[in-house]
Amino acid sequence: MAIRLLLTITTILALASSLAYASDPSPLQDFCVAVNDSRASVFVNGKICKDPKMVTADDFFFSGLNKPGNTSNPVGSKVTPVNVNQLPGLNTLGISLVRIDYAPYGQNPPHTHPRATEILVVVEGTLYVGFVTSNPANPNEKNKLFTKTLYPGDVFVFPEGLIHFQFNTGKTNAVAFAGLSSQNPGVITIANAVFGSNPPISVDVLSRAFQVDANVVKYLQGQFWMNNN
Protein backbone atom coordinates (compact mmCIF):
# COMPACT_ATOMS: atom_id res chain seq x y z
CA MET A 1 0.00 0.00 0.00
CA ALA A 2 2.80 2.41 0.91
CA ILE A 3 4.62 1.68 -2.33
CA ARG A 4 1.41 2.22 -4.37
CA LEU A 5 0.80 5.54 -2.58
CA LEU A 6 4.39 6.63 -3.23
CA LEU A 7 4.05 5.78 -6.94
CA THR A 8 0.76 7.70 -7.14
CA ILE A 9 2.26 10.79 -5.51
CA THR A 10 5.31 10.59 -7.78
CA THR A 11 3.09 10.36 -10.86
CA ILE A 12 1.01 13.36 -9.77
CA LEU A 13 4.10 15.42 -9.08
CA ALA A 14 5.56 14.48 -12.46
CA LEU A 15 2.35 15.51 -14.24
CA ALA A 16 2.17 18.75 -12.28
CA SER A 17 5.75 19.63 -13.09
CA SER A 18 5.16 18.95 -16.79
CA LEU A 19 2.26 21.45 -16.77
CA ALA A 20 4.07 24.13 -14.82
CA TYR A 21 5.59 26.99 -16.78
CA ALA A 22 7.14 28.92 -13.91
CA SER A 23 10.87 28.72 -13.38
CA ASP A 24 13.72 30.65 -11.88
CA PRO A 25 14.55 33.70 -13.98
CA SER A 26 17.75 33.63 -15.99
CA PRO A 27 20.50 35.50 -14.11
CA LEU A 28 21.47 38.88 -15.53
CA GLN A 29 24.83 39.07 -13.80
CA ASP A 30 27.64 36.69 -13.02
CA PHE A 31 27.04 36.34 -9.27
CA CYS A 32 25.39 37.91 -6.22
CA VAL A 33 27.13 36.93 -3.00
CA ALA A 34 24.72 36.87 -0.05
CA VAL A 35 25.64 39.01 2.95
CA ASN A 36 23.89 39.24 6.31
CA ASP A 37 24.25 43.00 6.69
CA SER A 38 21.28 45.38 6.63
CA ARG A 39 23.61 48.24 5.70
CA ALA A 40 24.89 46.54 2.56
CA SER A 41 23.89 47.79 -0.88
CA VAL A 42 21.77 45.46 -2.98
CA PHE A 43 22.64 44.68 -6.61
CA VAL A 44 20.51 41.99 -8.22
CA ASN A 45 18.94 41.19 -11.59
CA GLY A 46 17.15 43.98 -13.36
CA LYS A 47 16.52 47.41 -11.91
CA ILE A 48 14.19 49.09 -9.42
CA CYS A 49 11.05 50.01 -11.34
CA LYS A 50 10.19 53.65 -11.86
CA ASP A 51 6.79 54.93 -10.72
CA PRO A 52 4.52 54.41 -13.78
CA LYS A 53 3.14 57.91 -13.27
CA MET A 54 6.63 59.31 -13.81
CA VAL A 55 7.38 57.35 -17.01
CA THR A 56 7.83 59.37 -20.21
CA ALA A 57 8.56 58.56 -23.85
CA ASP A 58 12.21 59.37 -23.20
CA ASP A 59 12.45 56.25 -21.04
CA PHE A 60 11.95 54.20 -24.23
CA PHE A 61 14.19 56.31 -26.47
CA PHE A 62 17.87 56.23 -27.41
CA SER A 63 19.64 58.39 -29.98
CA GLY A 64 23.06 57.97 -31.51
CA LEU A 65 23.29 54.69 -33.41
CA ASN A 66 23.73 56.68 -36.61
CA LYS A 67 27.17 57.75 -35.38
CA PRO A 68 30.16 55.55 -36.31
CA GLY A 69 32.14 54.09 -33.42
CA ASN A 70 35.84 54.83 -33.02
CA THR A 71 37.75 51.85 -34.44
CA SER A 72 41.22 53.29 -33.75
CA ASN A 73 42.26 50.49 -31.42
CA PRO A 74 44.33 47.27 -31.67
CA VAL A 75 41.40 45.08 -32.78
CA GLY A 76 39.95 47.61 -35.20
CA SER A 77 36.34 47.52 -34.07
CA LYS A 78 33.92 49.33 -31.77
CA VAL A 79 30.72 47.99 -30.22
CA THR A 80 28.08 50.57 -29.30
CA PRO A 81 25.56 48.89 -26.97
CA VAL A 82 21.94 49.78 -26.31
CA ASN A 83 21.04 47.63 -23.34
CA VAL A 84 19.16 48.38 -20.14
CA ASN A 85 22.02 50.58 -18.93
CA GLN A 86 21.54 52.95 -21.87
CA LEU A 87 17.79 52.50 -22.41
CA PRO A 88 15.85 52.10 -19.12
CA GLY A 89 12.67 51.04 -20.93
CA LEU A 90 14.32 47.74 -21.84
CA ASN A 91 14.11 46.57 -18.24
CA THR A 92 12.34 43.15 -18.04
CA LEU A 93 11.79 43.06 -21.84
CA GLY A 94 14.60 40.60 -22.53
CA ILE A 95 16.08 42.33 -25.58
CA SER A 96 18.92 44.69 -26.45
CA LEU A 97 20.82 45.99 -29.46
CA VAL A 98 24.34 46.86 -30.57
CA ARG A 99 25.98 48.65 -33.46
CA ILE A 100 29.39 47.29 -34.49
CA ASP A 101 31.85 49.27 -36.58
CA TYR A 102 34.86 47.60 -38.18
CA ALA A 103 37.93 49.20 -39.69
CA PRO A 104 39.42 47.48 -42.76
CA TYR A 105 40.62 44.05 -41.55
CA GLY A 106 39.28 44.88 -38.11
CA GLN A 107 37.55 42.24 -36.04
CA ASN A 108 35.21 41.69 -33.14
CA PRO A 109 37.46 39.10 -31.42
CA PRO A 110 36.23 35.66 -30.33
CA HIS A 111 33.82 36.22 -27.47
CA THR A 112 30.66 34.86 -25.91
CA HIS A 113 27.42 36.29 -24.51
CA PRO A 114 26.58 34.16 -21.45
CA ARG A 115 22.96 35.30 -21.38
CA ALA A 116 21.86 35.88 -24.98
CA THR A 117 21.51 34.62 -28.52
CA GLU A 118 22.67 37.20 -31.08
CA ILE A 119 21.23 37.86 -34.53
CA LEU A 120 23.41 40.07 -36.74
CA VAL A 121 22.66 41.91 -39.97
CA VAL A 122 25.35 43.48 -42.16
CA VAL A 123 24.59 47.01 -43.34
CA GLU A 124 27.88 47.88 -44.98
CA GLY A 125 31.01 45.98 -46.04
CA THR A 126 31.93 42.30 -46.01
CA LEU A 127 32.23 40.21 -42.84
CA TYR A 128 33.62 36.74 -42.26
CA VAL A 129 31.73 35.39 -39.24
CA GLY A 130 31.53 32.16 -37.31
CA PHE A 131 30.86 30.29 -34.09
CA VAL A 132 32.13 27.11 -32.44
CA THR A 133 29.86 24.47 -30.95
CA SER A 134 30.23 23.20 -27.39
CA ASN A 135 30.59 19.52 -26.47
CA PRO A 136 27.59 17.58 -27.82
CA ALA A 137 27.02 13.87 -27.30
CA ASN A 138 28.54 13.02 -30.68
CA PRO A 139 32.34 13.39 -30.23
CA ASN A 140 32.72 13.99 -33.97
CA GLU A 141 30.73 17.23 -33.62
CA LYS A 142 32.84 18.54 -30.74
CA ASN A 143 34.06 22.13 -31.21
CA LYS A 144 32.72 22.25 -34.77
CA LEU A 145 33.24 25.58 -36.54
CA PHE A 146 30.43 27.15 -38.58
CA THR A 147 31.48 30.09 -40.78
CA LYS A 148 29.97 32.28 -43.46
CA THR A 149 30.94 35.36 -45.49
CA LEU A 150 28.26 38.04 -45.19
CA TYR A 151 27.41 40.96 -47.44
CA PRO A 152 25.03 43.92 -46.95
CA GLY A 153 21.57 42.62 -46.12
CA ASP A 154 22.79 39.19 -44.98
CA VAL A 155 21.80 37.87 -41.55
CA PHE A 156 23.55 35.37 -39.28
CA VAL A 157 22.68 34.05 -35.82
CA PHE A 158 25.06 33.12 -32.99
CA PRO A 159 23.49 30.71 -30.44
CA GLU A 160 23.52 31.70 -26.78
CA GLY A 161 26.75 31.11 -24.91
CA LEU A 162 28.81 29.92 -27.88
CA ILE A 163 32.14 31.48 -28.84
CA HIS A 164 31.77 33.59 -31.99
CA PHE A 165 33.53 36.33 -33.96
CA GLN A 166 33.29 38.75 -36.90
CA PHE A 167 36.15 39.82 -39.18
CA ASN A 168 36.09 42.56 -41.81
CA THR A 169 37.72 41.00 -44.87
CA GLY A 170 37.33 44.12 -47.00
CA LYS A 171 39.47 47.17 -47.65
CA THR A 172 36.70 49.55 -46.52
CA ASN A 173 34.82 50.07 -43.27
CA ALA A 174 32.04 47.67 -42.33
CA VAL A 175 28.95 48.20 -40.20
CA ALA A 176 26.58 45.69 -38.63
CA PHE A 177 23.67 45.80 -36.18
CA ALA A 178 22.79 42.94 -33.86
CA GLY A 179 19.86 42.12 -31.62
CA LEU A 180 20.38 40.10 -28.42
CA SER A 181 17.86 38.13 -26.40
CA SER A 182 18.63 39.76 -23.05
CA GLN A 183 18.36 43.24 -21.59
CA ASN A 184 21.93 42.74 -20.32
CA PRO A 185 23.57 39.96 -22.37
CA GLY A 186 27.08 40.29 -20.95
CA VAL A 187 30.23 39.70 -22.98
CA ILE A 188 33.34 37.62 -22.31
CA THR A 189 36.16 38.26 -24.77
CA ILE A 190 38.18 35.07 -24.65
CA ALA A 191 41.73 36.44 -24.91
CA ASN A 192 41.00 39.27 -22.47
CA ALA A 193 39.48 36.93 -19.91
CA VAL A 194 42.18 34.26 -20.15
CA PHE A 195 45.33 36.38 -20.48
CA GLY A 196 44.16 39.70 -19.06
CA SER A 197 42.37 38.62 -15.90
CA ASN A 198 42.95 40.55 -12.69
CA PRO A 199 44.74 39.06 -10.81
CA PRO A 200 46.37 36.94 -13.53
CA ILE A 201 45.59 33.24 -13.88
CA SER A 202 48.52 31.09 -12.81
CA VAL A 203 51.15 30.66 -15.54
CA ASP A 204 51.34 26.97 -14.62
CA VAL A 205 47.60 26.60 -15.23
CA LEU A 206 47.67 28.32 -18.62
CA SER A 207 50.87 26.71 -19.91
CA ARG A 208 49.41 23.28 -19.12
CA ALA A 209 46.00 24.17 -20.55
CA PHE A 210 47.36 25.50 -23.85
CA GLN A 211 50.33 23.10 -24.00
CA VAL A 212 52.84 25.93 -24.53
CA ASP A 213 55.98 27.11 -22.76
CA ALA A 214 55.50 29.29 -19.69
CA ASN A 215 57.34 32.14 -21.43
CA VAL A 216 54.67 32.22 -24.12
CA VAL A 217 52.00 32.62 -21.46
CA LYS A 218 53.97 35.36 -19.72
CA TYR A 219 54.34 37.18 -23.04
CA LEU A 220 50.60 37.02 -23.69
CA GLN A 221 49.78 38.13 -20.16
CA GLY A 222 52.06 41.12 -20.68
CA GLN A 223 50.07 42.38 -23.67
CA PHE A 224 47.49 45.15 -23.48
CA TRP A 225 44.13 43.43 -23.80
CA MET A 226 41.75 46.25 -24.70
CA ASN A 227 37.97 46.24 -24.54
CA ASN A 228 36.14 47.24 -27.73
CA ASN A 229 32.78 47.60 -25.97
TrEMBL record:
One GO CC term on file: apoplast
Segment forming the signal sequence: 1-22
Binding residues annotated for oxalate, in chain numbering: N108, H113, E118
Localisation per UniProt entry: Secreted, Extracellular space, Apoplast
The keyword Repressor is annotated on this UniProt entry: no
Gene Ontology molecular function, alphabetical: manganese ion binding
Alphabetical list of CDD domains matching this protein: cupin_OxOx
Pfam annotation, one family: Cupin_1
Domain Cupin type-1: 63-218
Xref: SUPFAM superfamilies: RmlC-like cupins
Coiled coil, from the record: none
Disulfide bridge map: C32-C49
Binding site for Mn(2+): H111, H113, E118, H164
Keyword presence, Metal-binding: yes
InterPro entries recorded: Cupin_1, Germin, Germin_Mn-BS, RmlC-like_jellyroll, RmlC_Cupin_sf
Keyword vocabulary terms for this entry: Apoplast, Disulfide bond, Manganese, Metal-binding, Secreted, Signal
Assigned protein family: Belongs to the germin family.
Name of this protein: Germin-like protein
Organism per entry: Perilla frutescens var. hirtella
